[in-house]
Specification:
The protein has 163 residues and is α/β, with parallel strands linked by helices. The chain is 20% helix and 26% strand. The chain has 4 helices and 8 strands, in the order ββββαβαβααββ. The two termini are 21 Å apart.
């Protein structure tokens, strides 16, 4: 898998992980069937830049039901409103469970807002988990992703089955 610091205009393609450059927001855009990112300066959101909410709002707008939003361990509420917008746009949404979080801030806020479809445990063989509810590496085969340290989105490829 290719991992790189995103540059303005980078295509979102299978097997590529894009990291937002420090002190810049990253937004998803679409041109026809092509997804790409814009790197933008802008005000701090939740006292930070890049901010999860900025990306997730753009994902809701441009990918809608073709996206899956995942929010992982992290402090604060960044990402909660954007994840809700993604869910309202038809995206599937997942938050890390409290038991496996180092800091249950970002997932907790997203759950409180009703932004989360599922909150499976990331621990292997967790009681009550079903294989289809757990975060699996097969997502990387079937989806293209944009990743940050505490969250990521997945864009569905048109020729793959829904999960």
């Amino acid at each position: 898998m290719e991992v790189k610091e995103a540059q303005d205009g980078d295509a979102v393609i299978n097997g590529r992980v894009l990291l937002a450059p420090g002190n810049f927001h990253m937004l998803l855009r679409r041109n026809g069937s092509r997804y790409y990112v814009n790197i933008k300066d802008g005000p701090l959101v939740h006292h930070q830049r890049p901010a999860v909410d900025v990306l997730f709002h753009s994902v809701a707008q441009y990918a809608g039901a073709n996206a899956i939003g995942v929010i992982l361990t992290g402090m604060g509420a960044d990402g909660a409103e954007g994840l809700l917008k993604m869910k309202q746009a038809g995206a599937k949404t997942i938050a890390q469970d409290e038991a496996t979080c180092v800091v249950f801030g970002m997932p907790k806020e997203a759950i409180k807002r009703g932004a989360v479809d599922k909150s499976p445990s990331l621990a292997p063989n967790s009681p009550g988990n079903h294989a289809d509810d757990q975060f699996k590496l097969k997502l990387f085969v079937n989806f293209t992703g944009i990743f940050f340290s505490s969250f990521f989105i997945l864009i569905r490829k048109k020729n793959k089955k829904n999960i």
